[in-house]
Amino acid sequence: MSHEKSFLVTGDVNASANPGYPGGSQPPMPPYPVAPHPPPPFQSGYGQPGYPQGPYPQGPYPQGPYPQGPYPQGHHPPGGYPPFPTNPYGQPQEFQDPNSPMRGNYHGEGPPSYYDNQDFPATDWDDQSIRRAFIRKVFLVLTLQLTVTLSSVAAFTFVEDVKVFVRTHVWTYYVSYAFFFVSLIILSCCGEFRRKHPWNLIALSVLTLSLSYMVGMIASFYDTDAVIMAVGITTIVCFTVVLFSLQTRYDFTSCMGVLLVSTVVLLVFAILCIFIRNRILEIVYASLGALLFTCFLAVDTQLLLGNKQLSLSPEEYVFAALNLYTDIINIFLYILAIIGRAKE
Q: What ranges does the record give for the region Disordered, renumbered to this chain (predicted)?
């Protein structure tokens, strides 16, 4: 018994005597049992013959260098892979490329006046209510402006005392022109100002009142029949152009560069008319001016739609109303000049 305990403690596999194998040496045993049945539960103690408790033999491991094969060199995106988005629900989010055209290139604080629909997707225009509300607001403001101007033209045309006053006080025309020019520059060049309520409406009101006074004063120097005829022709032309621009598939906004060049040519022609006083030349100049601003009216109308190459931001209702108003006023003045020179 003492010899068995000595074997179990030291783990000597070369013991000369073993109770399980009398008269011979113990055969070598594998480091782990290989029986097909599950091993018996382990019981602590020294009374378990046949299960050596010493260290198991350790086979040598390969100590040489591991083979280093080349890694696949595929195409990797510049800047590394994007980090995986984390959210409380563990659902991956859709990755958005910052260089994608759907994100646009505008990074300003406020919405731009004009923008290209190729860089600015019309996501806000997908909702029909936003488009209709914007167009309705623009035409409501435009209607109020034209009502004030038409009232001024009627007063300067049919009231004799007012006609006499403006003809004897010509300096009031230049004062109203100064107010008109300052308010026009502010609304055209200061994008932040024309989006601030109510300052944008105050500036637009000043511009409308000053321009209405100027138009009424100009109309007072023409015959009443010529003024009425010019108002009727302007109404028909503008109504037709607006309806056509809203219904047609042709994109007038793509012709903006041609119209700007035509404006420069018309300005040069106007300087020529100052030095050459000729009735036929003035009629040709007025005809070209009416045609040019009719095209501008078509372009400014399509800027409201949002489905053309160029569009206006939905917050630019004051700027949109200003463009349409000045187009209609210029068409009226050029048509009035054509009729007035033709009757002389």
A: 1-112
Which token pair is 95?
A: 């990755």
- The DSSP-derived string for 137-192 is HHHHHHHHHHHHHHHHHHHHHH-HHHHHHHHH-THHHHHHHHHHHHHHHHHHH-TT
Cα 124 from chain centroid (whole Å): 9
* DSSP letter assigned to residue 33: -
Residue 166 and residue 172 in contact, taking contact as beta carbons nearer than 8 Å: yes
Radius of gyration of the CA atoms of the chain, in A: 46
Among 37-51, 111-125, 289-303, the range with the most confident prediction by mean pLDDT is 289-303
Q: pTM score > 0.85 for this model? A: no
Burial of 38 (0-12, 13-18, 19+ CB in 10 A): exposed
* DSSP designation for 55: P
- Residue 204 vs residue 96, higher pLDDT: 204
State how far the Cα of 119 lies from the Cα of 100, in Å rounded to an integer: 9
| Closest CA relative to residue 29, chosen from 56, 3, 59 | 56
Torsion angle in degrees (nearest 10) through CA of 333, 334, 338, 341? 60
Q: Which among 299, 316, 297 has a CA at the least distance from the CA of 308?
A: 299
CB distance 148 to 179 below 8 Å: no
Measure Cα distances from 60 to 63, 64, 342 in Å.
9, 12, 116
